[in-house]
């Protein structure tokens, strides 16, 4: 006989949210985000063709039909848990760690290193979302938020893990075509800019004592990772953040024609909600970041 079963992940989210009376508390218990619980509940409501919750600010209340439904399935989840323990199936399941980080940092530093974390911790699923907005503007809570700093935000514990400076970088092929011996030689080159960081080149040129220098051309991009890619492709010279171009310099995709001056820059820091500061998985990932990106002493 064919069984009529709803999506089990959606059912699990509903049972936790209904029992606890809160999507946020259900997300904490299931080790997922508030948004993931909300999405699964909506999926179950669509499957059933009925509303399950009445939303009230920070709390949710079951509809009468949902309350009766929960009364039927709640004991089933308890029996399933007991059966799992009784027959020796390991309790541990894959944990999901939610991380929010800037796009360029994620693309050029975090993603190339995630394989090493996954190799050492195959039972941990890392969900990365990118955002360049301020921490206080995030619409959901993450286990770890990566931003510049050090800054202080109420309700968050901060730790720096990666130092950074900025200096000019370009492709080796470009340097062979048009050599750079002194900062004044930049007059013969195209300078690459990022619209969100308009002061990088003026500040560096002032530090290099050529503040009035006019380059042969200039190109401006709306995302920093596009600016760096243009430098790799030999289009011009970018102001490269040392942390994010270290792999390209080591591989020879980029070169730094001038070792000095270097512009100081904010460090990368982890910001963890106070309620998650004692979480073992959060501490594990935080420590791994600190090992991968030592701070300049």
Automatic annotation (TrEMBL):
<keyword id="KW-0805">Transcription regulation</keyword>
<dbReference type="GO" id="GO:0043565">
    <property type="term" value="F:sequence-specific DNA binding"/>
</dbReference>
<keyword id="KW-0804">Transcription</keyword>
<keyword id="KW-0238">DNA-binding</keyword>
<dbReference type="GO" id="GO:0003700">
    <property type="term" value="F:DNA-binding transcription factor activity"/>
</dbReference>
<comment type="similarity">
    <text>Belongs to the LysR transcriptional regulatory family.</text>
</comment>
<dbReference type="InterPro" id="IPR058163">
    <property type="entry name" value="LysR-type_TF_proteobact-type"/>
</dbReference>
<dbReference type="GO" id="GO:0006351">
    <property type="term" value="P:DNA-templated transcription"/>
</dbReference>
<dbReference type="InterPro" id="IPR000847">
    <property type="entry name" value="LysR_HTH_N"/>
</dbReference>
<dbReference type="InterPro" id="IPR036390">
    <property type="entry name" value="WH_DNA-bd_sf"/>
</dbReference>
<feature type="domain" description="HTH lysR-type">
    <location>
        <begin position="6"/>
        <end position="63"/>
    </location>
</feature>
<dbReference type="InterPro" id="IPR036388">
    <property type="entry name" value="WH-like_DNA-bd_sf"/>
</dbReference>
<protein>
    <submittedName>
        <fullName>Transcriptional regulator GcvA</fullName>
    </submittedName>
</protein>
<dbReference type="Pfam" id="PF03466">
    <property type="entry name" value="LysR_substrate"/>
</dbReference>
<dbReference type="InterPro" id="IPR005119">
    <property type="entry name" value="LysR_subst-bd"/>
</dbReference>
<dbReference type="Pfam" id="PF00126">
    <property type="entry name" value="HTH_1"/>
</dbReference>
